[in-house]
UniProtKB/TrEMBL annotation:
Keywords from the named record: Signal
Annotated signal peptide: 1-21
Pfam families: Lumazine_bd_2
Species this chain originates from: Dyella caseinilytica
Taxonomic lineage from the root: Bacteria, Pseudomonadati, Pseudomonadota, Gammaproteobacteria, Lysobacterales
Protein name: Nuclear transport factor 2 family protein
Length: 147
């Protein structure tokens, strides 16, 4: 009888840890999804609502670093007139340690439904005042090998 109680407790605890981790991952992904939804709407205020102020976007392209403030990126996205844009991430991997999280995900960026470029996004989030916000965004944009 004691063995059955032990097995039940172990299963319950395992489920509890997995369920808690899944809930935490969903909380981390919420501002990430809001960011990409706002990007698709070309909504500057929506983009800025889920990021910490004054962050920089860093892109690694052809052995060079390109940096842009979040405000300039948001302005450029809001001013885009070349057709609908979207950034889709695929199979994000989420890692969380207390109030710091990282999301690593391959992405494709489309204009008018056609792939313009692709790469991997690395999104760093911090939990500030009980709310996850994006505190850093990096990518390795490329034109070749995109599907």
């Amino acid at each position: 009888m004691n063995f059955r109680v032990f097995v039940f407790a172990a299963i319950a605890l395992g489920c509890s840890w997995r369920c808690e981790a899944a809930d935490q991952n969903a909380q981390v992904m919420d501002p990430v999804q809001h960011f990409f939804d706002a990007l698709g709407r070309q909504d500057k205020s929506g983009l800025l609502a889920v990021v910490a102020p004054n962050i920089e976007i860093t892109s690694v392209q052809q052995n060079a670093l390109h940096r842009l403030t979040i405000e300039k990126l948001a302005d450029a996205i809001a001013a885009h007139h070349g057709g609908p844009i979207a950034e889709h991430i695929h199979q994000p991997q989420v890692h969380v340690d207390q109030d710091l999280a990282v999301v690593w995900a391959p992405y494709t960026f489309t204009i008018n439904g056609r792939v313009d470029h692709c790469g991997t996004d690395v999104i760093t989030l911090g939990k500030l005042q009980d709310r996850w916000v994006i505190i850093g965004l990096s990518d390795n944009e490329r034109k070749d090998g995109c599907q």
